Amino acid sequence: MEMLLSTKGITICLFFFVLSLAAAIEIPLSVAQLPTITEQSHTQVAYPFDEDFTIKCEARGNPQPTFNWTKDGKPFDLLSDPRIVTSNNSGTFVIQNRGIITNFQGKYRCYASNVLGTAMSEEIELIVPSVPKFPKEKIEPLDVEHGDSVILHCNPPKGIPPLHIYWMNIDLQHIPQDERVSMSLKGDLYFANVEENDSRSDYCCFAAFPRLRTIVQKMPMTLKVSRFKHANDSGSPNAAVTKANFIKERKPKLLIPPESAGSSSSVTVIKGGVLLLECIAEGLPTPHLSWVKLTGNLPKDEPETENFGKILKIEQVTAADEGTYQCTASNPMGRAKHEFHVHVEEPPRWIKEPEGGVYSVGTNLVLLCEAIGNPEPTIQWKLNGMPIDSRTFRGRISAREISLTNLQLHDSAVYQCEASNKHGTILASANVNVLNIAPLILTSDGENYATVVGYSAFLHCEIFASPAADIRWTKDDSIEPLSTLRYELNKNGTLEIKETKKEDSGSYACWAANSVGKRAITANLDIRDATKLVVTPKNPRVLKSHSILLKCQSEYDSHLKHSFKLSWRKDGDELPVKSTEDGRIILDRDTLFISSVTLEDQGVYTCVASTSLDSVTAESQLIVLDVPDPPEDLQLSENQNRSVRLSWKAGASHNSPVNESIVEFEENRGEPGRWQELSRVPGNDTTTLLSLAPYVNYQFRVVSVNAVGRSQPSKPSLRYATPPAAPDKNPENIRVEASEPNEMVMKWEPLKPTERNGPGLEYKVSWRQRGVEADWNEETVKKHSLTLRNTPTFVPYEIKVQAVNNLGSGPEPNITIGYSGEDVPDAAPSGVSVDVVNSTLVKVFWFGIPRDRVRGHLKGYKVSWWKTKSMLDGKRHHPEKHFLTFVGDRNYGMIPGLEPFSEFRLSVLAYNAKGDGPESSPVVFETPEGVPDQPRFLRILNFDKDSVTLSWGLPKKANGHLTGYILQYQIINETHEIGPLNDVSVTNRSTLSWRLSGLSPSTKYKFYVKACTVKGCGKPVTEEGLTMAQGTYAGIYDGISTQGWFIGLMCAIALLTLLLLTICFVRRNKGGKYSVKEKEDLHPDPEAQSIKDEIFGEYSDSDEKPLKGSLQSINGDIKATESADSLVDYGEGEHGMFNEDGSFIGAYSGSKEKGSVESTGSSTATFPLHA
């Protein structure tokens, strides 16, 4: 057998383990075994409204058990009554509710038997209640006197508890109860003493049986209460009542327990039940009931009383509640007492129950049975439901133990132990199965198991055997034992492989053997990859109202794809798959998106991934950042005239610590309702000493600041008013402003409301002329300015302003120097001279005016110039002035942008804030020749295959005497590659066309023409054309240039262009500006390149940055990035100024030659002066 099984792939002998399976698993039904009761009924009530009543008794065993019943200890035949319905192979029967069924009431017991023994159920009591009814009787009226005690008896019928009794009238209104009138536990109504208003004829007792769904009513009872009648009835009614009450007054007398019971009685209560002790007394006045425990341990809690103190109630009674209790009924006439001796008893309960099991032949048996109770229970042993006869029983038997040695197959039996006392009976059964069988493996052969790496694998091998079987597990083809702690054999035969690895996959075999035989099964194990998770981002910190996207990245075994599931939890609670809160939180499988994050969203978010084999989680804690909550509970302390301590409680910081607190104040005198910052408290301090100003009615609030932002302000503190004082400071920023020459206006910044220090604030102004021995002039004003008239022009004054209030003056003020009103300068600069730098640039020199002739603060000098005639044609020009402003006290300046080969006149004046002074006498200077502008046009008149005729126009401005033209040409192609440049010099300045020969056919050329003077050549005008093999011209003007319609079109375009230029001219005259770049393009300077370094290099300063529209070039060489220092010699025009960074705005003003493009308007340029 071993050889045969080993060939099936069983290898590693794991280990050898002996199992005791007697009580480990149930005996398989395929094995012969004793009957066992598996289900039974308990106490049952046959309610009249039920259709039938089922009494259950089910049992298992092999062979199948048969069932017998006893009723009240006698055999009960289920076939004796046709209303009993039975079932096959079951002891359960049903009694149909037809006719009279009271004869079915009793105590039943079920017996299940087979050839091996008999099992017995516990007793089943069937209660068949009768319908409760009050007897029909005539109840005589009770006629009593005022003050008597009365008992109205209810005597309810018997029925299934619970029973509820009510006393009501015929209108179903409850009879009021109190200390005088109350109902006893039995349901009787007790009157300690009656009153006249107790008289009525409808005292009804109602008994309710909820389980029977029944309420019954006793016949109404009549109670008549009459006054006491004295034999000599001569007094008033009230006197009679008072006398009656006096006669009826009596000390209390106990009605429950009755006096016949003596001064004490015994009460027995079941442990765990409810103890109810009752005392009801009669007497006049109405007695009061009280309770006390005389012996035994006092209860931990005050005993509960009911029914107006007449019932003492203790629930869940324990042995500690035993003892003597006393009730006392008392009134002013005396008292009555009764003692209750309480005994606590309990029904039987098990200490040790007999335990059956499977035993092999030859073993020994010991059954123990022990129970306690009060009174002590009696123990009775039974064998197969029958009392054991010790004379014939081969084992030993005692009240607590049964033992047998050398068990044999015929010793199989059901042993019952029954413990009884007067409070009940309990039953315990022990099935002793003596078996001798080979192992039975109850687990199916060839089971497939799977787990993931790192988890434990459980391979099942459930075995039943007697004697107990030895179990071992093997793996694959090896039989070598494996000594590893990762393998563990459990009691039920299951193999546990801990912390599995991939190499644990394979085929396993479970072997079971005992002295009777041997069995084996195989099992297959697959090891899958473990599921892995990571949530990103990990523990993010998110600003409130922002959004966050959590992503759950997972890896899992492909075999587990269909069982893979993802879910999300927040703080352990699962989040719904659908979006929540109107789509603010959206779950989409592996992503969790939260928009407009709130503080409530903070928490631990867990991604849960599960497959059929494993479940893993990954967490990310979302931390929500927000501004702090506003501080609370502002308190003021350490009150002083100029300080107070402010303390507060910090609000929640919302995960970003408070790094600063801002204390603000509001005062209700100067600027009520306006909050101003007073101080800042670093860190998370919550107290600060505030420095205060006098005469301010403060209230404070605090704003907390963290890295996210500022909190809402706290609620304001209580107001705190400081006492007034003299001013601590004087006004600042004292200055003099004057609009007229003989006037001086003194101004200053007024004191803030918190700087006034007291009521009645005024300003004492003192002044005197500087350098003149004179007393101070003084004037006190309430406003923050003072105007002096009839002052000399531009004279320095010493000025003081002092703050004064009702409590005194401020500190001694500082002296400020100010000047009286200015007037325009009354002298012109002298010694004006001009140094010509090149054809467009000159340098002007002058001598400044004396300081006393400025009559104010010198602002600078203005240079004006105008063109008088052209040196080329001698034409005179209408004088249109241009000017540049040079800021500051200086004696030279650079004038750029002049027209070459022209005569100019120039003058200089000084100016101050009041205006311009007189101009100097004009100085005449001339500019030399310059390079000409580019020719007006270049046209190709005729293009043959190897020659071309070019025609060009005169330059826009000659800027001197023309000496001729330079004509250049070169081959070009579509790839932008160009050939060498060929030059042709045209020395005749009157020549305006030229024929070039020796060109290549079918070739594209580019042509250049530029005009020249003695100073050099200007910019060229260009044109392109293509020679053709047929000799035709492919240029722009060939073909259509000679057509009449084309000539007309060109004339129309020229006319429109002239009209547009005229409009621009008019608009430019109004605005007076055009850019320096335009100036440069219209006035090329041939000398600019050569003199650039000489003239402007000394002013280089790369720190200045140009702004859009800044100066780009004057003569093609001055760059916008050159600093204001490089432009210091250039003045500021009347309208054009520099930006803050020194970039130039505007160009130059002045008239241009008639008909020139430059005559589109005047412009100005302004340059700053750097000291």
TrEMBL record:
GO molecular function: cell-cell adhesion mediator activity
Pfam families the UniProt entry points to: Bravo_FIGEY, fn3, I-set, Ig_2, Ig_3
Keyword Acetylation in record: no
Residues annotated as transmembrane: 1045-1066
Recorded superkingdom: Eukaryota
Region ranges (Disordered): 710-732, 1151-1171
Comp. bias intervals (Polar residues): 1157-1171
Subcellular location: Cell membrane; Secreted, Extracellular space, Extracellular matrix
Secretion signal, residue range per the UniProt entry: 1-24
SMART domains xref list: FN3, IG, IGc2
Membrane topology: Single-pass type I membrane protein
All residue ranges annotated as the Ig-like domain in the record: 35-127, 129-222, 252-343, 348-433, 439-526, 531-617
Annotated ranges, domain Fibronectin type-III: 630-725, 730-823, 828-930, 934-1031
Record key words, sorted: Cell adhesion, Cell membrane, Developmental protein, Differentiation, Disulfide bond, Extracellular matrix, Glycoprotein, Immunoglobulin domain, Membrane, Neurogenesis, Phosphoprotein, Repeat, Secreted, Signal, Transmembrane, Transmembrane helix
GO CC annotations on file: axon; plasma membrane
Gene3D superfamilies found in the cross-reference section: Immunoglobulins (2.60.40.10)
GO process terms (BP): axon guidance; brain development
PANTHER family associated with the record: NEURAL CELL ADHESION MOLECULE L1-LIKE PROTEIN ISOFORM X1, PROTEIN SIDEKICK
Family: Belongs to the immunoglobulin superfamily. L1/neurofascin/NgCAM family.
Assembly with partners or alone: May interact with L1CAM. May interact with ITGB1/ITGA1 heterodimer and ITGB1/ITGA2 heterodimer as well as with ANK3.
The name this protein goes by in its record: Neural cell adhesion molecule L1-like protein
Organism whose genome encodes this protein: Calidris pygmaea (Spoon-billed sandpiper)
